[in-house]
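Complex record, two chains
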Amino acid sequence: MNAELDSLYQEIILDHYKNPHHAGLRDPYEAEVHHVNPTCGDEVTLRVHIAEGTVVDVSYDAVGCSISQASASVMTDLVIGKPVDEAMSVHEEFLTLMQGKGTVEPDEDVLEDGIAFAGVAKFPARVKCALLSWMAWKDATARSLEETR
Amino acid sequence: MTLPGLLPELEVIRKDFPILERTLAGGMPLVYLDSANTSQKPQCVIDAMVDHLERHNANVARAMHQLGAESSEAFENARDVVARFIGAPSRDEVIFTKNASEALNLVANTLAWATGDLAIGEGDEVVITEMEHHSNIVPWQLLTERKGATLRWFGLTESGELDLADIDSLITERTKVVSLTWVSNMLGTINPVKEIARRAHEVGAIVVVDASQAAPQLPVDVTEVDADVLVFTGHKVVGPTGIGVLWGKRSLLEQLPPFLGGGEMIETVRMERSTYAGIPHKFEAGTPPIVEAVGLGAALEYLAAIGLDNIHRHEQAITAYALDGLATIPGLRVLGPLDAARRGGAVAFEMDGVHPHDIAQVLDSRGVAVRAGHHCAKPAHARFGVQSSTRMSSYLYTTPAEIDALVEGLEHTRAYFKVG
């Protein structure tokens, strides 16, 4: 009975949920955004610091379920330290996985711990949870690039 | 098992609701504890709607043929049933809307357009409460913003009841409207509507009662509760979606300007200007939700046959049993009154260490359907310092065994997330 549920709540997800990486809001940053999932009320405030085309830091304060919290944690692991272009393509890859309704085979070399979210794609109601912080990051990054242009 | 107050024919009643026989993924039987969100439908409602579509379908009030007459009769009969159900002094005071939200918006919008005594402007005040559903907050925010009036509200006590301590300074000569829910969809609180209506009427304010959660589980008498307007939605009273009810006192409805313009709401139309139909048709522009009205009529007759007093006793018995069961879960906090006699059948709670989404997901894997989120009551959640909650809500078909399944599911959820 719990096979479906276990595919959603992978150990990796629960680990990130209990011990989120890069949590908290930090300086410096060029852009800060606040995103909300209006259906459930989950919220994230997220800051991006970009220097010389590289994502130097992503910091956040998030309230939400295990999926949205773990996703924020994994996202920061994946994008911090990467050139913006490369980080954006990781974002695209994650988005494709989430929108694939469970049919997309994730690439562990690109998504690392993010592959644990493959099971989430089978639960349409939870896809938004997994994407909340990623969308906030994309928005903040775009604004940050505007700022520094 | 049985409890004092349960509907004696509970097993028979459950057989009236075909969906309750369903099994879900993994062969789990459905445990439906989301009736405050929408109720399930008995066979008689489904049959009435199918029969209407199969045998009597035609537009109403404008088809000069036999089917048109049958359809009009069925539609208008539903209005009679609604009028009886809420004790309306006149059937003409019953207006069909799309849902309770549209009914509330109709009142707020037509008040914004009203002139004379009803006009609202700077210096005037509208009073609501902190426990309202968003549909009874936002229309009043829009109204007061548009007219330069002021929105004020009753706060809540720690136990989740309206704080009436400052009622006399809140409802004053400046108050034009007092709009409040009878039963909270989040806290479950049953509000002293009559007491508040008395104060509102002393200062000449209009009293609007949102009975969306009350109509399913309490006997409703619009005169007894002393409302000027009372609204509820069809789908929470075992009827279909797509239909709501606005009841208003004749004198008020006649004074308010029309809401939507179109067919059926007119008396005559010339290119220069039109004159309008009398109530209720003045507020029912366009082809109405006909089969939905037929379904709603069947639903209210079904509830009336069982008896609202009996349904209320059943809800209280199940709610008390649920509160006892929830109290056994470590780290669980119920939001709202803990005395089943003072509340309705929606029970929202938090559980330490597990987010409501995750609770609902694990329960769903066991066939237990609850709601997780802010339940369209963000201010009420904010009042208690919580962002979202899990809500179980029972109805006339809920059994104690289903509450047991919920409590077992919550214990399992704690184990699954390794809490405690």
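Note: The mean pLDDT of chain B is 96.
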